Amino acid sequence: MLFALLLFVPAIFAASAADWRSRSIYQIMTDRFATTEESGGSCGDLDNYCGGTWKGIENKLSYIQEMGFTAIWISPINQNIDQSTFAGNGYHGYWPNNFDALNSHFGSSDDLKSLVSEAHARGMYVMLDVVVNHMAYPADENAVDYSQLQPFNSVKYYHEYCPLTLYSTQTQIEQCWLEGTIVSLADLRFEDTDVAGPLKQWAQNAISTYGFDGLRIDAAKHVSKEFLSSYRASVDVFTIGEVYSADIDYLASYQRYLDSNHDFATQQLVILGAFAFSGADMSAAMSKISQIQAAFPDPSLMNTFSENHDMYRFASINSDVNANKNETFFSDGIPTIFYGQEQSFTGNNAPSNRQVLWTSGYSTSAPLYSFIATCNQLRNYLAYADSSHLTTDMKLLKADKHDSAIQKKNLLLVLTNSGSTAASTTFSFESEFSQGTTLVEVVACNEITVGYNGSVTVSMQNGLPRIFVNKSAIRGSGICSN
């Protein structure tokens, strides 16, 4: 199984954007994924450290790899504030107070090197989450002791405090503080060379010391595009930026400065719009696909997702596991699954969406675990067999209120939001396949034949997606024992 999933993924670690395009990413919150001793309780206080470590991740890489993932994304590694505040402490990694030290809760430098080395030995990339916008102090903005922040230990390195109240004003977005009450997130003067230089040098050192293959830049829209562009050039690895906006044009503008961004437009307008809510209109949501494709310089490099550490888990909005299957792995970009999604974890805003994974027993029989493994296996093979598969935009063939058909070269997705209790129906449409083409449905391994003028009729049952592939495109792949 493991060999079949990863046989077609090249092991290249001086990874470019083109190399990352074929990857699928498993997002890990380090403190919540696995403990060193592979033990631990339920962690009753999710606002504080629960005990996950880098060694714990290394010990559980097989769990991730056997789902077919070819990259992991780990939490920031810097030392964070340890004090327990009303908002908790820095277990998540986004409240750094010392860039020059590692977060000892996660392990040692040797532990981190070992994790990256083992991932590379398995042919997997490692993406590091980095914070460039701010440093953290456990008090309100009037009480920040800048001398305790390293290496930026003077007020001169920070923008003067202002509360971020106008998200329509780019100057406020970039120069005001994200937080200045319980925990102050002192906003760094990224435009100054004595701030930008050390930030870039730190990232370069982290990459050379540990061997990271890519960076995810937290709060990317809260620093300038000019800084992002120079930062990307200095680190010379693949970069994904967090630009929290579903405005298609605004979000797309940042891909001119970074390789990729989290695709909040697809997540909010298409995925949630089509599958999350009762009464969702599939046709209206899917109509956004062409707008997104036209706006982004390279949709195939965008980071697509439905869950992350800052948002409601999908199962909290829609507990139907079949609905979750429909929204998984359907878009053009680099797919990412947030740890626990494969176990159908629920949870609304942080920290309730940041549960510890070890309470699941790392079940490999969970419905979404096996479904994700199938999707990854197919995507890995199609990318290997046809270099143009990933760079070809998917095409919406037909959509109505409850069903849609999407084709991407030899791949055909028939999706539904009707739910697992819906009556069986059929959905008919015209594809771009030639008459007589045999299509294999890769979950049930059934076959259908394309009719006149590319016509396809699909039986839809129990709210499940139907994932078809041209049979001739998977010969020798091991998919459905072909």
UniProtKB/TrEMBL annotation:
Record's signal peptide: 1-17
Cysteine pairs bridged by disulfides in the record: C43-C50, C162-C176, C445-C480
Keyword Protein biosynthesis: no
Active site: D218, E242
The keyword Cytoplasm belongs to this UniProt entry's keyword annotation: no
Residues annotated as binding substrate: W95, H134, R216, D310, R354
Binding site for Ca(2+) 2: D218, E242
Binding-site residues, Ca(2+) 1: N133, E174, D187, H222
Site residues (Transition state stabilizer), renumbered to this chain: D310
Domain Glycosyl hydrolase family 13 catalytic: 27-379
Cofactor: Ca(2+)
The family this protein is said to belong to: Belongs to the glycosyl hydrolase 13 family.
Protein name: Alpha-amylase
Organism (species): Neolecta irregularis (strain DAH-3)
